[in-house]
Amino acid sequence: MMHHDEWESNCTEYLAGTGEEPGAFDKEMTETEIAWVVDQRLRAQSWETYPEVVLETFAGRPDLIATRRGICQVFECKRTLTLGVIEQASRWRTHSRPEQAGMPDLIWVACKRPQYRSNNLLWWLLRQFDIGLMSIEKQPAVEIRYGGEVEIFPQRYSITRRIAPRIQPGARRSAHRLIDQLNPDMRIAQPGAKGGETEYMTPFKRTMAMVDEFLSSEPDKERHIEQIIDYLNEKGGHHYGTDRSARGAIPPHLDRLGYPRTREWGCWFRARTEAAVAPCQIADTPR
User: Fold this and answer.
1) Average pLDDT for residues 30-59, to the nearest whole number?
2) What is the pLDDT of residues 68-111, one digit of tens each?
3) Helix axes 203-217, 225-234, angle to 10 degrees
4) What's the pLDDT tens digit per position in 153-202?
5) First CA to last CA across the chain, in angstroms?
6) CA distances from 88 to 152, 257, 274 (A)
7) Can you tell me the distance from the alpha carbon of 83 to that of 39, in angstroms, rounded to the nearest whole number?
8) How many CB atoms lie within 10 A of CB 140?
9) Cα 22 to Cα 13, 27, 32, distances in angstroms
10) Among 3.40.50, 3.40.10, 1.10.10, 1.10.287, what is the CATH number of 203-281?
11) How high is the pLDDT of residue 246?
12) Smallest Cα–Cα separation from 85: which of 68, 103, 63?
């Protein structure tokens, strides 16, 4: 097994905050802050980032997916390097049908740089799964007072590539399946935040947001469910398996969300009288 020092890389980059970000003055970093640093670094390099994406073909939500010129990277961000986060990142490799789920070209784990000797077993597992390791060090923001003047020196981060990832097996054939599921409206989440801490786009929310867009385009005009399905298909499709499933499932959701029916018979709807529902205000609902 290779010695720890042989895994080191001199590829270090630097990122500065503004001093106004949450936790800027804290010495310790949260997972949200680590994910924010990775997100900012990627955006500076012209990557399009998608935080906390919910995919139809893959269980769980990666902290970040990044794409550029047909290349797809996935990042899992944690405070420390553990067996759990490696297992989380390696799910792409252990998925029962990776060719259908889509395989990212590169997989990364990002964590705080440890102050102690790293666990050789964990590093070996990263190599076995071709997963890259990125470590982040933080120099907290500092407030200095000169008499009545206050000057803030913003926080700085050192980002080091400890292990370079390798192209994942099958990625050249199936990365596009993953990229094809990404849409601009998926970029609304806060990277690294879980549960109720952030809003994230799901396939259901996207479908209902497109329905709202269609009905709101001409608020006084009634629309039949068949017209709604046609519009969804023109815009890239809905998340239901078939048009028949969508035809049966969407009307009850429209009733629940307060879109008025315009006829006593048939599935005819018009826009809601109040402001249109924003995608992240639509509560997620099972199919």
Assistant:
1) 87
2) 999 999 999 999 999 999 999 998 887 666 666 688 999 999 99
3) 110
4) 999 999 999 999 999 988 888 888 888 888 766 665 556 555 444 455 66
5) 49
6) 38, 35, 42
7) 23
8) 17
9) 22, 12, 10
10) 1.10.10
11) 85
12) 63
Instruction: Write the DSSP symbol of residue 232.
Output: H
Separation between Cα atoms, residue 279 and residue 268, nearest integer Å: 22
Residue with tokens 């390097």: 81
Level-2 CATH architecture, domain 4-197: 3-Layer(aba) Sandwich (3.40)
| Per-domain boundaries in the chain | 4-197, 203-281
Do 203-281 and 4-197 have the same topology in CATH? no
Q: Which residues pair with 65 in a beta bridge?
A: 50, 74
Residue 192: what are its φ and ψ, rounded to 5°? Answer: 90, -15
CA 10 from chain centre, in angstroms, equals 28
Q: Record the tokens describing residue 71, joined without a space.
A: 């290349």
In this predicted structure, what is the pLDDT of residue 15?
A: 92
Tell me which residue has tokens 């998608």: 50
